[in-house]
Design goal:
The chain is α/β, with parallel strands linked by helices. It is 43% helix and 14% strand. The mean pLDDT is 96.
């Protein structure tokens, strides 16, 4: 039985991915800050789940959680780097520096840290890494500033990992979703339900399950195939137009 570690499994894409992998027969280490949201996985799937509650930004907590893995969960075949967030919608000149730092620490620093820790095991297992990026890493938009920058980093880090791991048998992929209806906008706006409902209203956005199915597809391809990058959008979403400021 193969083993996956999924970060940010308390909600949204991470939770859906953990569930999809379990339903596909994997055993899964589910991680995230909110232990109460991880516990139901163990209740439903029993011994095929290991719950590890920690903040990915806390190096000591990550090290302790990995050191405490039961023996039969230590052989990790797949790392899904899903933990991440966007904070704020203000333009750069009005944005919160604290929010910028939180996004960088979560979306960039924590992602590379846990990847670095698991690389020896993933190389030994000829495993796979799937990094959840975003279309925001490719297409700028007002208010995207640091969030878009962090996801561009994830895209480029994925490609460079792929180059460095050449010859090891490790597969490395990035998945770049567009609009997905999750708690994403609630987090970004500090819990503004109206803003979240307005964004998704009538848009037929993708679901967390849609992205999870794509991640499981990538993870279960034959070992000689590597998906470098997948970009997904709902049919209702396309590329933003250019802005033109007049009369300045």
């Amino acid at each position: 039985m193969k083993t996956a570690l999924v970060t940010g499994a308390t909600s949204g894409i991470g939770a859906a991915t953990a569930r999809a992998l379990l339903e596909a027969g994997w055993q899964v280490i589910v991680t995230g800050r909110r232990a109460e949201r991880l516990a139901p996985f163990a209740d439903q799937f029993g011994e095929r789940v290991h719950v590890a509650a920690f903040d990915v930004r806390d190096d000591a907590a990550v090290d302790a959680a990995l050191a405490a893995l039961p023996t039969h969960f230590r052989s990790i075949d797949l790392l899904v780097n899903n933990a991440g967030l966007a904070l704020g919608t203000a333009p750069a000149q009005k944005a919160s520096l604290e929010q910028w730092r939180t996004m960088i620490e979560t979306n960039v620093t924590a992602l590379v840290s846990i990847t670095h820790r698991l690389l020896p095991e993933l190389i030994a297992r000829k495993g796979a890494i799937i990094n959840v990026a975003s279309v925001a890493g490719s297409y700028p938009y007002p208010g995207g500033n640091v969030y878009g920058g962090t996801k561009a980093f994830v895209q480029q880090f994925t490609l460079n990992l792929r180059a460095d791991l050449h010859g090891t048998g490790v597969r490395v992929s990035a998945i770049d979703p567009g609009m997905v209806e999750t708690e994403f906008t609630l987090v970004r706006t500090g819990g503004d339900r109206d803003a979240s409902d307005t964004l998704y209203a009538g848009a037929e956005p993708m679901t967390a399950d849609d992205i999870a199915a794509t991640i499981v597809w990538i993870a279960t391809l034959p070992p000689h195939l590597n998906i470098n990058r997948v970009e997904l959008m709902p049919v209702s979403q396309s590329f933003a137009g250019f802005q033109v400021a007049r009369g300045q």
